[in-house]
TrEMBL record:
One of its GO terms (molecular function) is hydrolase activity. Residues 122-380 form the AB hydrolase-1 domain. Keywords: Hydrolase, Membrane, Transmembrane, Transmembrane helix. InterPro entries: AB_hydrolase_1, AB_hydrolase_fold, AB_hydrolase_sf. The keyword Transmembrane helix applies. The chain crosses the membrane at residues 27-51. This is Alpha/beta hydrolase. SUPFAM superfamilies: alpha/beta-Hydrolases. The keyword Transmembrane helix applies.
Length: 417
């Protein structure tokens, strides 16, 4: 064994021991966390051989200060869920101010909506687990002013309030609850007019729950939908890229571990900070497939995920094991639908998107090569191109319209399946 290999092996051992020791000192199941961490530990450990902790911290701060990601803001609003939870959303209105002949979006708006209509089409974006509305940064930048858009933070995420039902009774979150939350946001932010529903991961499940609960809304108002990196059920079978033994351990102990973590949130948050480098590696592994993903984008994703309190992580986890909205997909039959997935997604594997597409044979099914779970951040051009094409098929934007600098409906993407 070479000296470098020996150092790397020792560093891996040190990293794993440090992480496990931190969780044990917190009185928690460090072994289960270690199983999940193992896949990322090697890369983090090798980095530790040459880069000091202080330098890595400075690099993170520099990326936080300079990165533009997550800086886009719209007109803020609040909706209230059935249990009283405050849900934060932002609206991006169509730009009518651009002079005729300019490259800005006012010209497109006049072509689209030159005649008076009761209400423009609204595109509603729902984000995934442990993220927030800023995860749509590139798509938001591309669509600003072109289409009326609503971005919202799921309960207990981002700027929305903690779930009232969860804090008062300790009840876990259900996907049905999230579907009701989405209906509350639509009622507040887009009470009339056609809708296009876009959901990533948990956000896609939220869209399915809405369809299950309110089929009349889908029938009467929805003109298109995009389901990105999501699943209609059977998430308990996902192996997260782990060996069989590791998967079995995680499935057996993770629910109890997360419950224990959630009950000792303050102590656990200190542990997360102490092992920030290790968790950054885990986040990167399960978010992206590209080896050379932009460090600023990787750090942006890391900030969103690490900003989700551990008790919120624990509250939401059981919902995915119980999620089954396969029957609700029939509500979208006959509508323009985009089903898109990263080919190397370890969280909601592309086979789950393929299963959705099989139940919606008229849908466009797209597999993005060399892409992981956060495909809309990792390959924003591919996602925005296909989303723009969906909007063109629904009549929201004209065919072959350029959508910002991140894609246009005139480009060709490789469909999957």
């Amino acid at each position: 064994m070479s000296e470098t290999s020996a150092q790397a092996t020792a560093a891996v051992t040190e990293a794993a021991a440090a992480a496990s020791g931190t969780w044990r000192r917190a009185g928690l199941a460090g072994a289960a966390v270690g199983v999940v961490a193992a896949g990322a530990a090697a890369g983090v450990a090798v980095e530790r051989l040459t880069v000091g902790r202080g330098m890595r911290r400075k690099a993170r701060l520099a990326l936080d200060a300079s990165g533009p990601y997550g800086s886009l803001r719209g007109l803020p609003g609040k909706a209230y869920a059935a249990d009283g939870t405050e849900l934060y959303y932002e609206v991006e209105e169509i730009d009518e101010a651009a002079p005729e002949g300019s490259t800005a979006t006012g010209t497109r708006r006049r072509r689209l909506f030159g005649r008076k209509t009761p209400a423009p089409v609204t595109v509603v974006f729902s984000h995934g687990y442990c993220l927030n509305q800023d995860s749509w940064h590139f798509q938001r930048a591309a669509l600003r002013g072109v289409v009326r858009c609503v971005y919202w933070d799921q309960r207990s995420h981002g700027r929305s309030g903690r779930g009232v039902e969860q804090t008062e009774s300790g009840a876990p979150v259900s996907i049905d609850t999230l579907g009701g939350d989405l209906k509350a946001v639509i009622d507040a932010a887009a009470p009339e007019g056609p809708l296009v529903l876009v959901g990533h991961s948990m956000g896609g499940m939220t869209v399915m729950a809405l369809a299950d609960q309110h089929p009349e809304l889908i029938r009467d108002r929805v003109v298109g939908a995009a389901l990105v990196g999501t699943s209609s059920g059977r998430l308990g079978e996902v192996n997260y890229g782990l060996p069989v033994a590791g998967v079995n351990v995680v499935r057996r102990v993770l629910p109890g571990v997360l419950k224990a973590l959630g009950q000792r949130a303050e102590l656990v948050e200190r542990g997360r900070r102490a092992t920030a480098d290790l968790f950054a590696g885990i986040i990167k592994r399960y978010s992206f497939a590209t080896r050379d993903v932009d460090p600023a984008i990787a750090r942006f994703a890391e900030r969103m995920i690490e900003g989700t309190p551990i008790d919120v992580v624990a509250e939401f986890y059981p919902a995915f094991q119980e999620h089954d909205k396969t029957a609700a997909l029939s509500r979208f039959a006959g509508l323009p639908v985009l089903v898109l997935a990263g080919e190397q997604d370890l969280v909601t594997p592309s086979g789950h998107s393929e299963a959705i597409a099989e139940l919606l044979p008229d849908a466009e099914f797209v597999l993005v090569p060399d892409a992981g779970h956060l495909v809309m951040l990792e390959h924003p051009e591919a996602v925005t191109d296909r989303l723009a094409d969906l909007l063109a098929r629904t009549g929201v934007v004209p065919a072959a319209a350029t959508v910002g600098i991140y894609g246009d409906t005139g480009s060709t993407a490789q469909p999957g399946g």
